[in-house]
Amino acid sequence: MLKIKISGIKRYEDVTLVNGICPDYAGFVFYEGEHRITANIASHLVFDLRPEIDTIGMFKNQSASEITSLLSAGIIDMVELCGDESEEFIENLKLRAEAKIIKRFSLKTPADLLRINESRCDYISLTVTDYMENSDISKNVTKPVFLRGRGEAVSFADSVKKAEVFAVDSAHMLDSDGFISPASALKMCARIRSNI
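Above: the chain sequence. Below: its structure as tokens.
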């Protein structure tokens, strides 16, 4: 069954919305940008999140110790690497923590496909554009795919029908003034679930 991830949780209103929708994953952004959240705030929000929703910490070129401290504290269940982290970094992180790792990739060439399939990560994250526009390559990806969307929620949900992926990720698609838009989140999840 197709999994759903809603990213960019940073306020109690977001937790209430996510608890109502009950996606499989909730993404917390720990790297610089408008969606960034501190470990302290995330720890309070996670406490109020439904226990069946797995939490994913999103990082960009941050230290392994920063990541493992959030895993050890029980703030996050999984890790998403969004920067230029090397395979050596992924291997080191796997030795330090027993957590599933998602790695963001670009998929435009056969060389990209080779890097993806040889990666030590457990899952990969691709944009819907990369996945759909390069379908001759993407059909050969051997790892479970989180498909990231941007733009309008309904058109993204409709694109998912054409893809054989593990999960969909709202990424920053649901923004309204830097926050998750309840209307867009509800529309996207309803449309995706109706397509399953």
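Strands lie at 3-7, 25-29, 54-59, 78-81, 101-104, 123-127, 145-148, 167-169, 175-176, 179-180.
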